[in-house]
Amino acid sequence: xxxxxxxxxxxxxxxxxxxxxxxxxxxxxxxxxxxxxxxxxxxxxxxxxxxxxxxxxxxxxxxxxxxxxxxxxxxxxxxxxxxxxxxxxxxxxxxxxxxxxxxxxxxxxxxxxxxxxxxxxxxxxxxxxxxxxxxxxxxxxxxxxxxxxxxxxxxxxxxxxxxxxxxxxxxxxxxxxxxxxxxxxxxxxxxxxxxxxxxxxxxxxxxxxxxxxxx
Length: 215
What we know:
By secondary structure, this protein is an alpha+beta fold. It contains eight helices and nine strands.
């Protein structure tokens, strides 16, 4: 079956969805130990969350990049995740989705969340034809994420290293068996209508520029 170009895929239960972030050990380890973000975690700046494990590996270099050595799986409520989607705006102007560029800029400024669709990655972190959701949270959404939506936080750095070791050894079957089992997230098409965008929009570099520290 052909993979939809833009579809949310994630580990999820009836009540929660898992997203990934990567931090320095000074932030990541206390968060995993306490199951919540510490007071040192800044709630007044944008943070990006990613339902795709492999896109997180691409972003943090399997936990090898400076300041991203601790990879976290953050389990949040589906109610919170869907609130963010409902209140999100595309991070890039797209003709046909937005009436005009000025309207998009006003929407983006007001929105507590923003969405980008970046190329999904394979085990060798190569770009795939279909896209993966990146969800940026700011203002009210950041505070809700840290203090209301988060159900649990797990340090999955050892998992990332184990999968990476199999990839380096050329054993992609073993690496695949360890991957989190991400499934299509059940949201109606009309629920994401304002977030689909045009597949020609250049999104890949925008997320990297927009998220210098939080995840």
